[in-house]
Amino acid sequence: MGKKVQLEKRYSKWGYIFVLPFFVLFMVFHFWPLASTIYYSFCYLKHAGNTNPEFLPSIGEPLFKNFIEIFKAKSFHDALKNTFLFFLGELIPQWILAFWLAAVITDRRLRIKGRGIFKTAFFFPKLVAGSAWGMVLLNYMIAFFGTAAGMAIAASMINGFGFEPEDFEFFTSVQFFIIIITVFLQFGITFIYAIAGITGIPVEIFEAAEMDGAGRVQTFFRITLPCMKPMLFFITIVSIIEGLGMADVPRAFGSFDSLRKNLTLMMYLENQAFMGSYAYDRAAAASVIQLGIYLLIAGIVYFILIRDKDEARLKKMARQQKREAAILKQT
To answer: Which of 265, 262, 263 has the alpha carbon at shortest distance from 242?
Structure first.
């Protein structure tokens, strides 16, 4: 028995040794930059040559001066509004398209052939988005959608439907093109994640639903989505990070100094840090604000999708019973 315990202790240390590189890399490349960014957001650091950040209260300035300046800036409000417009505008159609295609591809009753070809074709835009070919594709898409929108307006006015150019103003705007192109580039990876979540559900559950006479819509909403909650949470977090941190597609539409309709939070942050301003303290404060938005939305998503409501209800009842028992003891 003693030798067995000694062997377990001897081999258990290797688990800590194997995990140690992860913690070292995490501390160096994630935790330390994050802590430094939070510290710089409360410092004075406004010039490229200023490498000695000064803590704001030590120079007689309010602690939250950088945050106050950011919230007072009109460009920040434009960036915040555009970011959520792009995020919600591309998230809803992207999810509808990705989950619908994933449900069709994985449907046992349809038995679609060539599923691998569809997966590759849908994922290809995401694969080339960050390359030179991706930028060429993006420029061609900008030109195509602009031309198609112009032709739609011309056709509607010629046919005498009574539309005015102002009625199509949003559909010919920069924001609409950004949403359309982002959906095209991003829905492929969401489609792959959705397929992974659906195929991870035991086949017996779908067979039982089919034997009970459940339709495809009932099966999707009452079985598929509830059974893939962990993957759904992962897809939501990835979509939040991609959506609220988007910059490549809006940046392709031109300079945001003269055109604020494509300005996003990430572009605002880059403008503060690098585009001639070198206001690293305000850029750090903007990063902290963006992190707070991430945490807030992720927390809401967790409480909606992942949290066990029955367990939370039981804990609440247990606390209520303890309080009632304590009151009875006092009386």
So the answer is: 265
Confidence tier at 257 by pLDDT (50, 70, 90): very low
Q: How far is CA 17 from CA 25, 39, 74, 223, 252, in A?
A: 14, 31, 51, 42, 46
* Residue 319 identity (one-letter amino acid): R
Cα–Cα distances (Å) from 169 to 149, 259, 261, in that order, read: 10, 16, 13
Specify the higher pLDDT residue, 44 or 47: 44
Rounded to whole angstroms, how far apart are CA atoms 314 and 310?
Answer: 6
- Mind listing the pLDDT tens digit for each residue in 60-83? 888 888 899 889 888 888 888 989
Of 231, 228, 223, the residue nearest 204 (C-alpha): 223
pLDDT at 133: 53
**Phi and psi dihedrals of 164, rounded to 5?**
-110, 160
